[in-house]
Amino acid sequence: MPDLNIPREGHAVFCAGGELMVAGGHTSGFVPTATAEYLSDGEWHQLPMTYTHDHGTALVLRSGQVLLAGGSKEEMGVGQSFGVEMYDPASHSFTGFGCLDQKRTLASAMELDSGRVVITGNWYADDVVEMFDGRKFFTPVKPVSVGRVVPFLFRTSQGDVLIVGDRDPRDHLADSIVVDRLYGEPFTVPLLQQWKPLTYNAPTTADAGFIGDEAQGRYAYLMAVKNFERTREKPELKGQPAGQIAVVLVEDTIFTLLPTTCPIPMMSPLGNSPIIYDRSYIVADRQAQQAYLCGVDKDKRLYVVSIGYTERPAPLTLYYTDPQPACGFYVPVLIPQGNLAIIGGSSKTDYDSDNFTPTASAWLIPLGRQDDVTSAVNRWPVSLLWWLLTFVAVLLVSASIVVYWRRKKVVLPVRQTERVESREEPSELEADSNKKNEELLERICLLMDERQIFRNSELKLADVTAALDSNSRYVTDCIKECRGLTFTQFVNEYRVGYVQQLLRQHPDMKVFEAYTEAGFTSERSFFRIFKDVTGMTTSEWLSHFGHTG
């Protein structure tokens, strides 16, 4: 695609009125810009904005208009701002109309069915949940138990919103097992003790990972997570690289690892170069029933892992390009044709971001829905020969650039190959078993979350199976298959999570009181299990999160 008029980083990227749009951010020298650009007739057209919204929030509303709010107040990402404006794609105009209740940078927003908008998250400032009434006013709703930067927001079928994240407003590790709610009390998700949400400090699209069906009242999301196991290698992680990326399925208040045909690749199939996914989040194409996670290596090859999320286990396909040194790396956005666009971002050739020298490059990544690809790339032919000829021509004239995919579509596990690897489809028996395991795990988690039976220090497997009207073999096999844990490890993760929740909510509470409430019977076993689960000693965790009790 043609380059932007100016280089950008910290900008919002979205589709509004059928047009691809970038808004705000900062340009060369880390200087904020109060401009936006929309793509039409093969050109980027620049527009004036009211505010800069550098690392601000942008949300496309059901009305078609776009809410933009907050962002850094000064150059070089300093401070936060109150400014709010609305973009009207029909008139290509921005109108400032109000201010946030609390000044913010790197916040997230989610529109509710009522038309109101939930906003939370901040950078180097306090965080609370506030609400936009859909017309003019912003009001505080409730405090958060854990401050976060660009948190994930997930709607539920009960009209609630979950708030999830692993980085606090000062970019330190947050207590990610705690999930805040718009309504009701926070709760803990032991799975997020080991598998931390993958957070990138850039404006995000709230519903990017949504795979549910609003018409049927099903709210489900995919979230990329990273293994932060920091102690000895657990048996269930044997063979997985440190920092392994995985996918979590969030449906209402249930968080489960999405089973896949193999682990997400962490190394390039072209050598020993690691693939870094830390600047992306999962983008779902519900029409194609595929979800995408983007990565980059040190040679500036772009990678996309395609996830067939409707199948169990979900098949993975890895796409990759030749080195693209002119390409920036920024959060991807799904455009109406089912392709991905990466626009602006860091111009450096290594893994690090560089706010001072962003790029103006705009790239199209054609995926899936091939009937629409030609229109998305200015009707360039799709055959391999024409892709190659087009790419050479583009290089020669320094004109519009589109990422062309190598013909090597490698179905994982990834290896150097010149052909598409085949994959055996799971049998009907295996698919039925996977479905039953997921249903049983959901019942087990509800038992733990709602009745908190883990707090019974004498809890036995027989107690759980009796409550579920199941048998011990089914329960243990289900936990092992879905979580990779024994029954005891599973219960202990809940207990440790509850201890952390108590100490978070009651800073003066004694550790002895907390672990006794959670179901532990001895100090020695609690300290050992706490370190096994969190990777920290109790003292380290208390110091890290500022507990005074």
What does this structure look like?
The chain is of the alpha+beta class. The protein contains ten helices and 30 strands. The longest helix has 24 residues, at 428-451.
Write the SSE topology.
Blueprint: E1 12-16, E2 19-23, E3 26-27, E4 31-32, E5 35-40, E6 43-48, E7 57-60, E8 66-69, E9 81-88, E10 93-104, E11 108-111, E12 117-120, E13 128-132, E14 138-143, E15 152-155, E16 161-164, E17 178-181, E18 187-188, H1 191-194, E19 195-197, E20 220-227, E21 245-251, E22 254-257, E23 283-285, E24 290-296, E25 302-307, E26 316-320, E27 333-334, E28 340-343, E29 362-365, H2 370-376, H3 384-397, E30 410-411, H4 428-451, H5 461-468, H6 472-483, H7 487-505, H8 511-517, H9 523-534, H10 538-544
Antiparallel strand pairs: 1-2, 2-5, 3-4, 5-6, 7-8, 8-9, 9-10, 11-12, 12-13, 13-14, 15-16, 16-17, 17-18, 19-20, 20-21, 21-22, 23-24, 24-25, 25-26, 26-30, 27-28, 28-29
Strand content: 25-35%
Strand order of the largest sheet: 23-24-25-26-30
Number of strands: 30
Number of helical segments with 4 or more residues: 10
Rg to the nearest angstrom? 24 Å
Question: Helix/strand/pairing class, anyone?
Answer: alpha+beta
Helical percent range? 10-25%
Main β sheet profile = 5 strands, antiparallel
Tell me, what's the shape?
Answer: globular
Taking pLDDT < 50 over at least 5 consecutive residues as the criterion, the unreliable ranges are 370-426
How far the N terminus sits from the C terminus, by CA atoms, comes to 57 Å
What is the mean pLDDT? 82
